[in-house]
Amino acid sequence: MRNIYKLGISTCLAALSATVLHAAELGAKDEPIKLAINEWTGQQITTRIAGHMLETAGYKVEYVTAGYQNMWQAVSEGQLDAAMEVWGSNVTDQYRQLNKAGKVEDLGELGLVAREGFVYPPHVAELCPGLPAWEALKDCAAAFATAETLPNGRLVDYPGEWGTPGADRIKTLGLPFKALPAGSEGALVAEFRASVERKTPLIAVFWQPHWAIAAFDLKFVELPKGTQECYDDPAYGPNKDVTGDCDFIPTRVFKAAWPGLKDKWPAAYEIIKNFTLTTEQQQPLMGAVDVDGKPTEAVTAEWLSANTDTWKPIVDAATK
After folding, report:
1. 97-153 pLDDT, tens per residue?
2. Which end of the chain is more exposed for a tag (fewer CB within 10 A), N or C?
3. What is the CATH number of domain 2-113+252-319?
């Protein structure tokens, strides 16, 4: 598996050379920097890699399990110091308000090229002719019906803590479906596995980067083109979680922190601000955890050992 994690150094160095880095003071290095651990594997991998970089710089790091939707007050108060993978498509109004008030700081792009939408395994196209066009779902909803949803079809939505993008879209698109939230990321993956093995109908809300996209050859439904005008639907207000009757806007994935991080741990601020992780880097690591069953800590440790030339220059530039 080691070769899977080995990355092209030139790409990273090119990106690094385009970023202005400078050495900074460590600051309160005896006090732990508290990083939020959220509910999905990719975020945990991202956070563990960033945490190791901070430890290499000489910091203590504490990983704090936090609910993604309700952690922002804690970040604004310094009870949590940073969140390493924030998806702009489903941040809450609380985040937006705190960010606008200067109480939560946006630390820039993480580097993931992300997409969200309705997905299905390939065999489902035979059960619902007309896919990937979204209009096909109007005519074959009965094929997706269950005892819980009759007479409507069943759409598996994100876990409840992540918002209700599926429920919102089927309502605005007038689709005869009922959205049922998945229990977790793992439960969503289990749905795909069961559908592929049994050739049963399934439509779900999902995202990439994720190893399951390739593992199950998942296809995206072609929803009406997402536009900023649709995203700022007057029925919901600007930049809400729902996007009216259109597709998901391409998602910005970024880092956010307690504004006091910059002054309390200056070098840590530089490291986090300049830390990036690409889809190509993260996705195999997710597979190693979720498919191969390896612990997240072991997978990230192996990646870090194999890719010192990728991340160490960022640490060195912030501290030397």
Report:
1. 999 999 999 999 999 988 999 999 999 999 999 999 999 999 999 999 999 999 999
2. C
3. 3.40.190.10
Q: Which residues contact 302 (CB under 8 A, 6 or more apart)?
A: 1, 2, 5
Cβ-in-10-Å burial (0-12, 13-18, 19+) of 39 comes to middle
Overall fold of domain 115-231: D-Maltodextrin-Binding Protein; domain 2 (3.40.190)
Return the CA Rg of the chain: 21
- The answer to which of 10-14, 179-183, 229-233 has the lowest mean pLDDT is 10-14
Find tokens 């049994």 and name the residue. Answer: 198
**The pLDDT of residue 237 is above 80:** no
- Start-end of H helices in the chain: 2-5, 9-17, 41-57, 72-76, 93-100, 124-127, 136-139, 165-173, 185-198, 211-215, 228-231, 261-264, 266-274, 279-290, 296-306, 308-319
Tell me the angle at which helices 41-57 and 279-290 cross, rounded to the nearest 10 degrees: 110
Same CATH topology for 2-113+252-319 and 115-231?
A: yes
Is the pLDDT at 227 greater than 80? The verdict is no
Q: Which two tokens stand for residue 108?
A: 């820039």
Single-letter code of the amino acid located at 202: L
Cα 289 from Cα 164, distance rounded (Å): 27
Structural domain boundaries in the chain:
2-113+252-319, 115-231
